[in-house]
Design brief:
This protein has 424 residues and is an alpha/beta fold. It has helices at 10-23, 25-36, 40-49, 60-72, 96-104, 108-114, 151-160, 273-280, 284-292, 333-351, 355-386, 388-401, 404-414; strands at 52-56, 75-79, 91-94, 116-117, 120-125, 131-134, 147-150, 167-169, 174-178, 181-184, 189-191, 194-197, 215-226, 237-240, 246-251, 257-264, 299-305, 316-318. Helix 5 (96-104) runs parallel beside helix 10 (333-351).
Length: 424
């Protein structure tokens, strides 16, 4: 059965695309300038609205790209294997680069109201006194706090603001791609001019470009959200234990607390119960947090990584974890997915209708950043483990004692998003 690429009357959709295109100051100026310059922009709107983009995967990257592509004027369809659009998960940190990408699609303010700014935190080496860290220096001008937010809230902001003219097909598990046709396991089909793989670390779309798969890094991550804590508000902190654990906890709105624990493991999934006593021994506060968190809500996730995919394809592009699954050492995977989304949409718009060129431009813009994050995350994550107990102690000491000026230089380079002038 073929699924039509749109579920609304063409006219409505076209009017909405035009309205959206003209709602951006930049586009409006271009459009009115072009009236005198030979209707160039009109032709461009026509071209974009005739181009159908199918996005596989409705995670943070897929939905952000859906917004960006729609705002550019493309016809957009999102397909998702799950029965409903939702995000399971605990908390997440969104740094300046991610916030800037959200700003480009008009969602920064909405997301900020749902999370909590995270200006500073304490770093403990288990058993030693804390060192205070300022997170704002990890931004372009040294004054932007990252945000801690529940994943469901970030996802909610992206989902709730999706235009009704974006087609969404749920329970559509992509089985394979033949040319421009996407075929689901249940036999449904969609045709698209451009296919975006936003289908996560174990991407099916990626198989069209490479047969590489992510490697398990012999670490797992437990994550949870503990209910509101009594007493004075908690300050975010990370506790490093020289043998096994990196435990972080961060305040959320309404005094809830997001926490995670990264720990060595030979196998990709383990029961939290087996680690409870060991983790509880890190500090009384941590013992309280994990005690208060309902067992059933604690998630276990394998830590995986894969070298970024920089192979180009004429009409297929990858964003987010599909392109570059990496260790979560810097809390940047979703931020990079947000960046990818707006850079890719911008390239497609700028180079339309030469989409192969647009995809090449996207990859060449992004690959340096993907590779450097991949390496840094590895160094801060399992890179230290590869060098044994001494290597881990050294990595912890480096994190604790890097002077502020060095962190600030690093922050300016890494957490700022160079394409921050993209607006749709
Ligand atoms: C422990 C941990 C902590 C992290 N903390 C942070 C953090 O603090 N900050 C940060 O920025 N990042 C963080 N990350 C990284 C972040 O979670 C990911 O990089 C991000 O969620 C990736 O989003 P995505 O949209 O690319 O993929 P996903 O969120 O994986 O979405 C993929 C979507 O594709 C769908 N899909 C898959 N296959 C198919 C198919 N065949 N057909 C149809 N649909 C399909 C899936 O159902 C899913 O909805 C962390 C990661 C981990 C593991």
């Amino acid at each position: 059965m073929k699924v039509p690429p749109q579920n609304k009357a063409n006219n409505d959709e076209f009017v909405s695309v035009i309205r959206n295109y003209l709602s951006s100051d930049l586009n409006r100026n271009r459009y009115f300038m072009s009236i005198t310059a030979g209707f160039d922009s009109y032709a461009r709107v026509m071209t974009l609205s005739e181009t159908h983009i199918a996005i596989v995967g409705s995670g943070i990257g897929g939905l952000a790209f859906a917004h960006a592509a729609y705002l550019c004027g493309f016809r957009v369809t999102v397909i998702e294997q799950a029965e409903i659009l939702s995000e399971i998960g605990s908390g997440i940190s969104i740094w300046e680069n991610g916030l800037e990408a959200l700003e480009a699609i008009g969602l920064r303010a909405e997301v900020e109201t749902r999370g909590l700014a995270w200006p500073h935190y304490e770093m403990h080496r288990a058993g030693k006194s804390p060192i205070m860290r300022n997170n704002q220096i990890l931004s372009r001008r040294g004054n932007v706090s990252p945000l801690i937010i529940k994943r469901g809230e970030l996802f909610g902001a992206l989902k709730d603001k999706l235009s009704q003219y974006i087609n969404i097909f749920t329970s559509f598990k992509l089985d394979h791609i033949e040319g421009h046709t996407l075929r689901a396991q249940d036999g449904r089909e969609i045709e698209a001019d451009i296919i975006i793989g936003a289908d996560g670390a174990h991407s099916r779309v990626r198989q069209e470009l490479t047969d590489r798969v992510p490697r398990f890094c012999n670490q797992i991550c437990f994550r949870g959200i503990s209910p509101p804590q009594n007493g004075s508000p908690i300050r975010g902190a990370e506790v490093y234990d020289k043998h096994r654990h990196r435990f972080g906890y961060f305040p959320l709105p309404d005094n809830e607390v997001y926490w995670f624990d990264i720990v060595d493991s030979e196998i990709p999934r383990q029961s939290f119960e087996d680690f409870q006593t060991e983790i509880g021994g890190l500090s009384p506060r941590i013992a309280q947090l994990i005690h208060d968190t309902p067992d059933a809500s604690i998630l276990c996730h394998p830590i995986e990584e894969m070298k970024p995919v920089i192979a180009a394809h004429n009409h297929i592009a990858l964003i987010g974890d599909a392109a570059h699954p990496m260790q979560p050492s810097l809390g940047q995977g979703a931020c990079l997915a947000l960046e990818d989304a707006i850079v890719l949409a911008d390239c497609l718009k700028r180079h339309a209708p030469d989409y192969p060129k647009a995809i090449r431009a996207y990859i060449s813009t992004r690959k340096g950043r993907w590779n450097s994050y991949y390496k840094m995350c590895r160094q801060l994550g399992t890179g230290a483990l590869d060098k044994g107990d001494f290597g881990r102690k050294l990595a912890i000491a480096r994190m604790a004692h890097t002077p502020n000026w060095a962190l600030s230089l690093f922050g300016r380079k890494i957490f700022a998003f160079k394409q921050n002038d993209i607006r749709f």
